[in-house]
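Board work, copied verbatim: Protein lifeguard 1
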Amino acid sequence: MLVSGETGNIRSSMFSPSNHAVEHSNELSNENSILVDNDMSDSKSYSSFRSAFPPTNETQDENHAFSPGVIDNSFSFSEKTIRMAFIRKVYAILMVQLAVTMGCIAVFVFVQPIALYSKGHPQLMIGALVMSIVLLITLICCIDFRRRWPLNIIMLGTFTLCEGFLLGSLSSHYDSKEVLVAAGICTAVCLALTLFSMQTKWDFTAMGGILLALVVVLLMAGIVAICVRGKIMQIIYASLGALVFSAYLVFDTQLMLGGKHKYSISPEEYIFAALNLYLDIVNIFIYVLALVGGSK
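↓ predict structure ↓
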């Protein structure tokens, strides 16, 4: 799913005259791309920008090239503007998702009749789980659904409600104090990791292979935890899971930020970016809750 795509279409469409912009955006757009390789963006954008204008004696040399300084500044300004609007949209969607999820968890934890009804009807939890998986696969694999308004928002909202129901049902098996402690720890960890992602010079977007290996290790540890039950094994597995998805939160945050990182998510994929961050935070909460509950 993490594939490199063309990025020159965004920059050339911002600065080329209208006729040439349409021609270049049609040639360079790739609807199937989710990630863009930032190492290739400068040369491709420069080529598109250069070919969009007719040569003049004052601004071009014998190869019809513009001044590199002017091009870099212009594209830097345009890319930053687009990226900032994209980040604001992603975090706005994410905040709504988290608010809905926390509301569902609070209802299941503090309203006992609903918690008891959920425990007495496990088929509801199974149905929510199946629907969550179907919606998740659809949002990830079907680009048309993910980019079509308002279908993408409806599907994402339905997925959030299903996840809220699942997390609420899970939280009802723990004490309310344990849920509150886990929520507080999760909030602090996610905030710290987000600030770290924005400030660090380490590029986690180039570490996809390492993160995949960690997921495989987590899967193997889960199989071992099923076969070898015990309090210590539960704590080890929960700690490993929280660590893996904390790394994924940094990875997905830097993909969204773009800039000097090797890979970045296309600004058209705000649903995909919000979904990634939401799943990272949800998984961190699940493992922290298991860690807090298992330690008592």
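The chain is about 75% helix and 5% strand.
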